[in-house]
Amino acid sequence: MFLQKIKTLLVAAAILPCFIQPASAHVVWFDYKSGEYNILFGHPEEGPESYEPSRFKEAIVYDSDKQILPFNFNGKQDALSLTAGKNVAAIQGFFDNGYYAKLSNDKYLRITEPEINNYDNVGHYLKYTKAFYDWSDALAKPFNLPL
Predict the structure, then answer these.
(1) Strand pairing partners for 30?
(2) Separation between Cα atoms, residue 62 and residue 77, nearest integer Å
């Protein structure tokens, strides 16, 4: 009887983290609409947030043979999009969200690189993203992301 209760308690303790929603970081994703691939930032389940377009550092557009395609960035108010020719199969992106210091009240403060030494708990938040719009054997192989 006692052993059964311990087993039940251990199973409950193992399953409990699955039901707790952790605080998740922002992500970057692409949303295709009317010939443009909008570059969005935020939490997809809550919707995009505005961001400084200069934080989006790089995009690479591929066809289904994993050949790089030309594209254009389109500036929008507090966001970016890109347009590319036909046959877009995948897009890879890199977003530098900058430095944030964690304060004692569990809040975060955006800081500049020269201010890093003024804080104890600082993170540099980089976002990499990849979106697929077609599939091929070439695209199934790993992509080289800068680390």
Answers:
(1) 39
(2) 26
Element (H, E) at 17: helix 2-19
Contact 39, 27 (CB under 8 A): no
Alpha carbons 12 and 18: distance in angstroms, whole number: 10
Q: Give the bridge partners for 80, in sequence order.
A: 39, 75
pTM (predicted TM-score): 0.75
Phi, psi for 111 (deg, rounded to 5): -130, 170
Q: Residue 77's pLDDT is what? A: 83
Lookup: tokens for 122: 């600082």
Report pLDDT digits (tens) over 9-19: 555 555 545 44
pLDDT by residue (tens digit) across 31-67?
A: 999 889 999 999 989 999 999 999 999 999 999 999 9
| Alpha helix segments (H runs only) across the chain | 2-19, 137-140
Q: Which two tokens stand for residue 56?
A: 């989006």
